[in-house]
Amino acid sequence: MSENQLPPPGYGTLRQDAFTIALAQGPLQIKVTPLDESVIRLAAPDTYQRLHGLVASRSQQIGELAARAGLRDEPAVFLVSFFTRDQQVTYEPTALQLLSRGILYRPADILPLTPQWGRQQLMQQETQTALYVFDPSIDLDVTFEVEYAGQRSLAWASIIRILQAERGRVVGRAKG
Questions:
Q1: Ranges assigned E (strand) in the chain
Q2: Facing residues of 127 across strands?
Q3: Measured by CB atoms within 10 angstroms of the end CB, which terminus of the chain is less buried, N or C?
């Protein structure tokens, strides 16, 4: 979506969990949140500011990672977190993939946000978080799947309907 087609920020009501895809692989819990403006502008104002600020504060690093990966356009960026309640669980950051329109997308690069990301191990009640940079051709207006180690989530299909309904309400509130 171009800037003039985007809903205005500040009128959304969605919580982050409303547009986050959750996936479990045994004791490992994974959350994947698209950070595209067309999605996060539908969030409640505080959530929008937090997510927008997260991307804005790292835009230079994201751009460098995208350029290094050979991406010509602005990449698709996702906030990904790994969590467990168990004692110790390992995770493989690059095992997370997206399947869209029959094409399997692997992360072009990953920008860690938490200091212990690189050890690829979670302690009990620990969350490790990173920004995943993907090819910009992933279309958030169509259904896609999140895959990790053989587990797939089809949740985006229902999330699209939530986003479409909220987009209509946001435009109405902004005009009113």
A1: 21-25, 28-34, 76-84, 88-90, 96-100, 103-105, 109-112, 121-123, 127-134, 144-148, 151-153
A2: 83
A3: C
Say how far apart CA 89 and CA 27 lie, in whole Å: 7
What's the burial of 136, exposed, middle or buried (CB within 10 Å: 0-12/13-18/19+)?
middle
Residue 124: CB atoms within 10 Å: 11
pLDDT digit string (tens) for the chain, length 176 residues: 545 578 889 999 999 999 999 999 999 999 999 999 999 999 999 999 999 999 999 999 999 999 999 998 999 999 999 999 998 999 999 999 999 999 999 999 999 999 999 999 999 999 999 999 999 999 999 999 999 999 999 999 999 999 999 999 999 988 87
Q: Which amino acid type is present at position 131? A: L
The residue extents of the domains of the chain are 3-171
Length of the chain: 176
Q: Which two tokens stand for residue 103?
A: 């094409």
